[in-house]
Every structure is written in C-alpha cells, then in structure tokens.
C-alpha cells in the first residue's frame, strides 16, 4: 500500500513539475517572441528613417559649383542694350536676336568702328552693373543649390579692367539679390581656370587662362550671343534656369 501511495505522489509531482516547466517554457518563448517583434519594429522604424534621410539628401560626393554672374545671373545683354539706346538714340544698334560673339564691343565695332568705344562706355559707367536685372529663375536656382547638402556654391565673375565702379557694384548686386551673408560666396577673378571646382556654369563659349586643363566641367549657359553655336558632343548646355540643372549636379556626384 505504501508503495502505491509513494508512486502516486511521484506521478503527481512529475505532472506538476512538467506543468510548471511547460508554463515556464511558454513564458520564455513568449518573452523571446516579444523581444524579436520589438526589435523588428525598431529596425523597421530605423529603416524608414534611413530611407527618408537618403531621399532628402543628395548622395555621392561633395560638389563645388561655380556660377558666372553677367549673362548667367544678371541680364548683361538686356541691360546694355537698354542703356546704349538711351544714351545714343540716333546710333545704330544690334538687337538681341542678331547678337553674335561674346564681346559686344567687337560686334559694334564691326558695325562701325567708333561704336566699339561707345559700347564700352556703357558698362564702364556708374550704376551699370548694380542696375542689371536678374535673369529669370537664376537667383532662386542658386539659392536652392546653396541649400543642398554636400554642395558648395560660389558666384565666380570677372570684373572689367576699368575697375572704378565694377568690383563694388558686383558685390552690391549680390548683396541686393542674395543677402549680405552670400558675399562670402563671391569670387572675383580675371582667370577662372585657376579656380578649383567641379562645375562652371558660364555663357562664355571659350574660357582660357593659365590652366590648360581646369578642374571644372564647363556647362555652357545659353545666351543670345551663343545660342547659334554648335557644341562638341562632350560639352553640355544649360538652356535656361528652367532647364534641369539638378540633373547636371546629380551626374557629377556619380
């Protein structure tokens, strides 16, 4: 009789132990699954954060973009023609549609020799550069560029040799349209080939200087004087500031 009761007690203890063990195992499994699900949710949230960051920030290398001023940001051609006709109303003039060649004075000199100096006198005059109107979309595009991550933007412009008014007015024009802080981003140079950059957006077809192989790629900005020119297959144009300038920057980050 004793053995039967003893055996029964052992069976009960075994069953109870198994039940406890089973419950512990279930609790343990539950805890493990909870931890896994929690980590999965955390990973999912982190993944979404990374995706949002990657979509809002440019990928690839840091870029230095150089942007010309006259004919790219400021309407040099339109400003010149307006002031030339106001000062010399009886002299012949060249319409913007008929402009050919980068140098305005050269084409006017071909029209009549004395008109070369008259043309030069316009942009040597006080208030010529400060009163130039911005080209459509240029100021906004450069501001957008400057706010992009991994992008340094500089206005790279060549002052005329008759320096009485030009350098000051170029700085004043930038301050007027971009604000005082953007003056830190102005580069005045007679030779753009010695300036280091990844891209130079400029309306001058041929940019020559001390460096035969500048670091930057020249993006030809379309203007009235160069729109008729054929460019090499290796050169690129920016037709206007409504053109896809962001695609050009993205291509340089690859």
Automatic annotation (TrEMBL):
Keywords: Membrane, Transmembrane, Transmembrane helix
Keyword Transmembrane helix: yes
Database matches in Pfam families: NT5C
Domain of life: Eukaryota
Keyword Cytoplasm in annotation: no
Cellular-component GO terms for this entry: mitochondrion
Transmembrane intervals: 12-38
InterPro entries hit by this protein: 5'(3')-deoxyribonucleotidase (IPR010708), HAD-like_sf (IPR036412), HAD_sf (IPR023214)
Catalytic-site annotation from UniProt: 68 (nucleophile), 70 (proton donor)
Biological process annotations from GO: pyrimidine deoxyribonucleotide catabolic process
CDD domains linked to this entry: HAD_5-3dNT
A single GO molecular function term of this UniProt record: 5'-nucleotidase activity
Protein name: 5',3'-nucleotidase, mitochondrial
Organism: Mastacembelus armatus (zig-zag eel)
């Amino acid at each position: 009789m004793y053995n039967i009761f003893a055996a029964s007690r052992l069976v009960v203890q075994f069953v109870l132990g198994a039940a406890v063990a089973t419950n512990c195992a279930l609790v343990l499994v539950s805890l493990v699954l909870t931890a896994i699900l929690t980590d999965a949710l955390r990973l999912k949230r982190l993944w979404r954060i990374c995706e949002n960051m990657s979509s809002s920030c440019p990928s690839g290398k840091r870029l230095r973009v150089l942007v010309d001023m006259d004919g790219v940001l400021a309407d040099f051609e339109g400003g010149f023609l307006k002031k030339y006709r106001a000062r010399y109303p009886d002299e012949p003039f060249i319409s913007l549609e008929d402009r050919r060649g980068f140098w305005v004075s050269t084409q006017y000199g071909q029209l009549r020799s004395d008109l070369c100096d008259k043309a030069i006198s316009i942009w040597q005059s006080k208030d010529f550069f400060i009163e130039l109107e911005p080209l459509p979309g240029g100021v906004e595009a450069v501001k957008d560029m400057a706010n992009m991550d991994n992008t340094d933007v500089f206005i790279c412009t060549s002052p005329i040799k008759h320096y009485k008014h030009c350098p000051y007015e170029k700085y004043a024009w930038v301050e007027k349209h971009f604000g005082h802080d953007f003056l830190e981003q102005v580069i005045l140079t007679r030779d753009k080939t010695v300036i280091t950059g990844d891209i130079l957006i400029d309306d001058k077809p041929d940019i020559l200087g001390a460096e035969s192989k500048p670091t930057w790629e020249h993006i030809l900005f379309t203007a009235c004087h160069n729109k008729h020119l054929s460019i090499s297959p290796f050169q690129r144009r920016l037709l206007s500031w409504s053109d896809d300038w962001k695609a050009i920057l993205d291509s340089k980050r690859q």
